[in-house]
# Entry
Amino acid sequence: MDKKISTGKKTPNRKENMSERKASVRKKTAPGKKASVGKRKRTGGKAVQRKKEAPGRKTSAGKRGTAADTRGTKKRETGQIRESAAGMSKRDEERARRRAERERKVRRQKITMAVSLCVILLACIGIGVFCLPSVKLAFRLFQGDRYAAKEDYAKAQNAYEKALRTDPSSVKAYRGLADLFDRQEMAAEEEQILNTGWEQTQDESLRQYYCVAVLNQAVAEINAGNVTFSTVEKCVRVLEMGENMQKSLELLGICHDRLFKESLENDTCMLFFDADPSQDTCGYEEYERQLRRMLTLYQTNPSDDIGSLLKQYAVIDVPYLRLSMPHPEAYLGLLTEINSAVNDAKLAETIDCLSDIKEAEEGADQIPDSMEQLVLHREGERVSCFFLDED
# Structure
């Protein structure tokens, strides 16, 4: 077997042939000509011939394929973008919804907290304001007026009394209670609350209201035919306060006539007579008390009206005046004091008569029990005295 002689050149192998073919393809061909491309085998035994063209030159088929591929790619990309955008949109919407819900929840919590704080603050302010004495007083007065308008006098009285416990110097509360008592014809209670109100407040309106209430009570007793020295006392009280003086003097004159003239029994005034001499049950002491108050008024304010009234009460101008012992002596002392202030002739004559009786008592060892009643007899300008013998 002949051996091949080496000539110093390498025998081209498969790899070298492939390189040469690739190099030949890369060479530029003349314009308008196509370069031939050799066939190559693909893996799997099938050979595919590719035709390559020079740069910038493409066939119409290749252009159509490339455009179709591009459009397909763009559609796929657009579809993917749309799908991605749709997915992202749903996620964003969900996130936005949750975020909005959280924000609403937080906002509701903030609003609830703010409202709660406002309610608590208002409640504290309301409690604090209501605890103020002026506010409590106004509320109690409002309650009293409302209940009084509904004629619920018990609740109205309770409200006014609470107002006075809050402020003992509340003029409106005193007037409210006085009105309640006046509506219910509770004259004594009305007089008492007005007197207390005037003493506590020294308010002139309460003072005037009090005087009017007292005089109204005196008028009611006169109209009822129940005149006593208590009625006289009411008029004297108003006179002492310097209110409604003319009305007080007028009522005192009416009381004098009802007491000493219209109550006569067989021309005899029995106001100072005790059926049982051992018991002092007549009205002399109250009579003397009111006359001394009138005397003090006259000495403080020596007016003719008060002086005339004082003489009218001192000189009891009735045919017979019956006095139980020992009132004649006290009566003598009272008339002496009054006469020293007014200097009246009738008073002087009565004083002389009573002085004679006193001297007679001092000269006698004992006055019999049957003669412990003294009678003053007045006939015209003449006055005489004698003891009454029951036998």
Observations:
- Residues 1-11, 27-59 have pLDDT under 50 and may be disordered.
- The first strand starts at residue 40 and ends at 41.
- The chain is about 65% helix and 5% strand.
